[in-house]
Amino acid sequence: MFFVLTLPLFYGCMKKNGVINSSLKVNIPSQGVFIINEGNFMYGNASLSDYDPATRIVQNDIFSSINGLPLGDVAQSMVIQNGFGYIVINNSGKIYVIDTTSGKYVGKITGLTSPRYMHFISAEKSYITDLYAGKISIVNPTTYQITGTILTPGHASTEQMVQWNDFLFVSCWSYDNTVLVINTKTDQVVDSIKTGKQPGGLVQDKFNKIWVLCDGGWVKSGSGGRIPMLQRIDPSTRTIDENFSLTSDANPSRLAINGTGDSILFINAGIWKLGVNQTSLGDHPFLIAGTHLYYSLAVDPLNSELYLSDAIDYQQDGIIYRYSSLGVKIDSFKVGIIPGSFCFK
């Protein structure tokens, strides 16, 4: 297998026939975006890419090339805090920490079951959601130690997080229909909000309203229909104040918000866009999928440019498409297998 690095010609390949060239120099720019490539489940071929939109230079498989070790099995997400990048490796049950300027490994967080996302409460406290654990782990990100847990009885799966004042809203995704509310001062679940089936993505708009995308769940034959939906939560009253139902055959995913906080976007074959004050989704997507298999979506918070990943066949290296905020294609480039999330610097 070949992992190709798109750089000036004197760089060349990072990995060939499984042998890592750890002498390869990688220059990580201060601007741009990291692309987290999931890799195949149980294959341990997750990878990290870097893209500089100013120069359009792509660097692939940078974690392995810099540190001489594989990233792990299914890279789920990444967050940056105080110059350090925390890469959540779902099926490996760990989080690798890197220096974002050099890409060098500086530590790891272990003892996790199936981590999904990480959210910083302060410089010394973060929460980590989990697919199977039935709890949220409390971690000191400077010592990499688990300092406590928040039990979520009846909710095995916790997913994405959005904070409003001292309260954290957490979606419970797998076979669930709940958004939990956690008091970050006491680390206790203080409330829950019933939503549509399988709430996943959460974003907060410029009016501090919280949007949740529910994919409708999986329906067994004869068990009834499914209603995917986009819902809006008023965090002050902890109630749903707006519903947008999708068709029963819809498969919505990857909720995102633009840089000014006034437009919601998500994947449903194509890319759909909704102004936060709109009362209807409309009949046509903002971007048509065409032959693309859009897998992931993110929006640059600085200029609202869109980044879309095409997983192709889930076996070969995926492609990233970069669009302007108006939907005009700017660039495209190859990354690793199953590019699943983005982390802007």
General description of the model:
The chain has 345 residues and is mostly beta strands. The protein has one helix at residues 62-67, and strands spanning 2-3, 15-16, 19-20, 33-37, 47-52, 57-59, 75-81, 84-89, 94-99, 105-109, 115-122, 125-130, 135-140, 145-151, 161-164, 167-172, 178-183, 188-194, 199-204, 210-214, 229-234, 239-245, 253-257, 263-268, 270-275, 294-299, 306-310, 317-323, 329-337, 339-344. A four-stranded antiparallel sheet has the order 6-5-4-30. The protein has a four-stranded antiparallel sheet with strand order 7-8-9-10. A four-stranded antiparallel sheet has the order 11-12-13-14, with no helix packed on it. The longest helix has 6 residues, at 62-67. The two termini are 30 Å apart. The model is unreliable at 1-23 (pLDDT under 50).
In short:
This protein is an all-beta fold. The chain has 1 helix and 30 strands.
Number of β-strand runs: 30
**Which shape, going by the Cα principal axes?**
globular
What is the CA-based Rg, rounded? 20 Å
Distance between the termini: 30 Å
Strand content: over 45%
Overall pLDDT confidence: 92
Key words describing this protein structure:
1 helix; 4-stranded antiparallel β-sheet; mainly beta; disordered N terminus; 345 residues; globular
Secondary structure layout plus pairing:
Elements: E1 2-3, E2 15-16, E3 19-20, E4 33-37, E5 47-52, E6 57-59, H1 62-67, E7 75-81, E8 84-89, E9 94-99, E10 105-109, E11 115-122, E12 125-130, E13 135-140, E14 145-151, E15 161-164, E16 167-172, E17 178-183, E18 188-194, E19 199-204, E20 210-214, E21 229-234, E22 239-245, E23 253-257, E24 263-268, E25 270-275, E26 294-299, E27 306-310, E28 317-323, E29 329-337, E30 339-344
Antiparallel strand pairs: 1-2, 2-3, 4-5, 4-30, 5-6, 7-8, 8-9, 9-10, 11-12, 12-13, 13-14, 15-16, 16-17, 17-18, 19-20, 20-21, 21-22, 23-24, 24-25, 26-27, 27-28, 28-29
